[in-house]
Design brief:
The chain has helices at residues 17-25, 45-55, 69-78, 98-109, 142-145, 180-188, 218-235, 241-265, 268-287, 298-308, and strands at residues 4-10, 32-39, 59-64, 84-87, 93-94, 113-119, 135-138, 160-163, 194-203. By secondary structure, the protein is an alpha/beta fold. Strands 1, 2, 3, 4, 5, 6, 7, 8 and 9 form a 9-stranded mixed sheet that branches.
Length: 313
């Protein structure tokens, strides 16, 4: 039985896929399975996956009609046999010691989660000596986990190895963009024992066809709202007041900044609809007490208030 299940959703990535799968084969830790979900990809991605499955039986391939990234990850997770889960995007790659390092840290400290950082510029990293890794170990709530120090937790899923049982009852929200942050905040509601390291173990490759780089649409604004409301619903109980204040000061300003930029950069034909969706979301968040000046650039904050009060840009 594999120790780690790697979930790899695939859609229109034939240009990058072999590089991704080769980085899995290059892992110094061998007790893995890779569950590759061909999400109805119209290119040769499915064929490439089948070729690797013939090459190495640790690659398992699921072919399905297109259901979107979230459901592809959910379906892969539901087929996982490993004690630990790792989510890998099919246009990126792994440091050769990613699994060895994170699995070793999990075992040493009986942790629920190991989180690390992204290598955005593919800077070469020397071999890692596991015995000398500097870490922060915490089972505190998220607002204390991300205290003022160099050890920070990112809210994407590709920078984490999870104990499988930690993911019980938690799925990615289907049919939305930007599904990582609601999933991550649902995980951290459980206050998992977390190991934080600053090692850059995930190699990000710029893909102009990726979901995050798609042309802005009103649906994306709606999807942000779905994700934020999901988080609000699980943290709105008075018991989680400090966590919700942390979300209000850190996550909300970042997400609103992204949305304002998308609205401002959108095509003129849909710009008014974009701002209409965004304004409705701002009014809803304001009614829930999730907008204050803390954490915001003041110019952006006043722009939000102007939209809420019916003003025009």
């Amino acid at each position: 039985m594999p120790k780690v299940s790697i979930i790899i959703p695939c859609y229109k990535v034939e240009k990058y896929l072999k590089r991704c799968l080769d980085s899995v084969l290059a892992q110094t830790f061998c007790e893995w399975e890779a569950i590759c979900v061909d999400d109805g990809s119209p290119d040769n991605s499915g064929q490439i996956l089948d070729e690797y499955a013939k090459l190495d039986s640790r690659f398992k391939v699921i072919h399905q009609e297109n259901q979107g990234l979230s459901q592809a990850r959910n379906n892969g997770k539901n087929q996982a046999n490993g004690d630990y889960i790792y989510f890998l995007d099919s246009d990126d790659t792994m440091h050769p010691q990613l699994l060895e390092t994170t699995y070793s840290l999990m075992q040493q400290h009986n942790a629920d989660l190991v989180t690390f950082e992204i290598n955005k510029h593919n800077q070469p990293i020397n071999n890692i000596n596991i015995n000398t890794i500097k870490t922060k170990i915490t089972n505190q709530p998220i607002y204390q986990k991300n205290s003022k120090s160099k050890f920070k937790i990112h809210f994407n899923v590709c920078t984490k190895l999870y104990k499988k049982e930690l993911l019980n009852s938690i799925d990615f929200i289907p049919n939305i963009h930007f599904e990582d942050y609601p999933f991550t905040f649902a995980i951290f509601k459980k206050n998992p024992k977390t190991i934080i390291t600053t090692l850059k173990l995930y190699n990000y490759a710029q893909n102009n066809d990726s979901i995050s780089r798609q042309k802005s649409t009103p649906k994306q604004i709606k999807d942000y709202s779905i994700g934020i409301n999901y988080i609000y619903d699980i943290y709105k109980h008075p018991h989680y007041k400090k966590e919700l204040n942390y979300i209000k000061r850190t996550l909300i300003p970042n997400l609103l900044k992204q949305q304002l930029h998308r609205c401002q950069q959108s095509d003129e034909t849909i710009k008014s609809q974009m701002f209409k969706e965004f304004t409705q979301q701002l009014i809803d968040l304001n009614n829930k007490g999730l907008i204050s000046w803390r954490g915001h650039n003041l110019a952006r904050y006043f722009t939000y208030k102007k939209l809420i009060n019916g003003g025009l840009l």
